[in-house]
Amino acid sequence: MRLRFILSEIGIGLRRNLSMTISVVLVTFVSLTFVGAAGLLQLQIGKMKDQWYDRVEVSIFLCPATSSAPTCAGGVVTDAQLADIRAALDAPEVAPAIEEVFYETQEQAFASFQDQFQDQFWASVVTVDDMNSSLRIKLTDPTRYDVVADVVAGRPGVETVENQRELFDQVFLVLNRATLLAAGLAAVMLLAAVLLITTTIRLSALSRRRETGIMRLVGASTLFIQLPFMLEGAIAATVGAVLAVAGLWFGVDVVVQDWLGASLTWIPYVSSREVWTVAPLLVVVAILLAGISSVVTLSRYTKV
After folding, report:
1. Do 139 and 98 form a contact (C-beta atoms < 8 A)?
2. What does the pLDDT read at residue 250?
3. Measuring CA to CA, which residue among 133, 139, 64 is closest to residue 100?
4. How far apart (Å, rounded) are the C-alpha atoms in residues 168 and 176?
5. How many CA atoms are closer than 13 Å to the CA of 19, on its beta-carbon side?
6. Which segments of the chain are extended strands (E)?
7. Where does the sequence pass through the membrane (predicted)?
8. For 91, which DSSP code?
9. How far is 250 from 244, CA to CA, in rounded Å?
10. Whole-number Å distance between alpha carbons of 271 and 249
11. What is the pLDDT of residue 304?
């Protein structure tokens, strides 16, 4: 009997404030979509770091004949200079940080260049002498780039030292800033959702003030009086959370996996599994929104 009465009161409240309820659903949907997007972006960054950082290489570009760098004043790197660089890499304080060293000749670099840019008209004017021979170093720990760079940078025969991780970090910086933007928008929208849920509950409570007064007179408990209003907000917020999960699933499955995945196959993308990982968090946030709004509102507007 009590359950039937509570369900009846919930139905009445939702019908009386239908437009406000729809607004709560939509605002909750948008705000939790931003929350979910921020979470998925962080999971995406984690997947990319796990895969890319393991492949990070340090590239020591050796002097070609045409370089104007001060360390290349003697022209193309000599065998003696190359031997000195290799000896520095074999030093006891450096060797433990190095997993593998691969030497790429100018001819190999030129062949790779031609394969990559053979369709470009300007590639035909580049010669073997313009290319850098290089030492490609795979590190045991990608964070120890400085150990290698410090001992070879500035040595005769070394034009530049480049760390691939720096390129990756720039990508991750952009993604992290996108996460902060999504989180900022989510915070604003969550505040709007709280205010809207509070307003909806207040209007519902005011429209049924007479009924709640009668219930108080016949001895109904505070929880029994307030429960229908709390459930109204919780239902609207939960529907918004379900829509947010559906929207995120559609975005990941169709936009990320099918569209981006078909064109950029070298990136490890988040999948629907990550969406289901984030989904419980969104539902919990939705329930907390409704709970906070209910506590703030009902203590005042259901007093008789």
Report:
1. yes
2. 92
3. 139
4. 12
5. 1
6. 57-62, 98-104, 134-139, 158-163
7. 21-45, 180-205, 217-250, 275-298
8. S
9. 10
10. 8
11. 43
Q: Phi and psi of 98, rounded to 5°?
A: -110, 130
Domain with CATH 3.30.70.3040 in the chain: 55-163
Two tokens, residue 21: 């309820």
**Domain 55-163: which topology?**
Alpha-Beta Plaits (3.30.70)
DSSP 258: I
Quote the distance between the C-alpha of residue 104 and its chain's center.
36
Q: Tens digit of pLDDT per residue, the chain (304 long)?
A: 455 544 555 555 556 566 667 777 888 888 888 888 888 888 888 887 776 666 677 888 888 888 888 888 888 888 888 889 888 888 888 888 888 888 888 888 888 877 777 766 666 777 787 788 888 888 887 777 778 888 888 888 888 888 766 666 777 777 778 788 878 878 887 787 777 777 776 766 565 555 555 555 555 555 555 666 677 777 888 888 899 999 999 988 888 888 877 776 767 788 888 899 999 999 998 888 877 777 666 555 444 4
Residues 6+ apart with CB under 8 A from 159: 61, 62, 63, 64, 67, 69, 71, 72, 132
SS3 78: coil
Separation of alpha carbons 158 and 152, rounded Å: 7
pLDDT at residue 15, rounded to an integer: 60
Structure tokens at 38: 């921020």
Phi, psi (rounded to 5 degrees) for 263? -100, -30
**Whole-Å CA distances, 161 to 11, 14, 247, 295:** 69, 66, 45, 60
Tokens standing for 39?
A: 């979470």
The single residue listed with the structure tokens 């002498």 is: 129
Neighbours of 238 (CB within 10 A): 19
Q: Which two tokens stand for residue 184?
A: 């900022």
- How far is 55 from 241, CA to CA, in rounded Å? 38
CB 297 within 8 A of CB 36: no
> In whole angstroms, what is the distance from residue 23 CA to residue 140 CA?
54
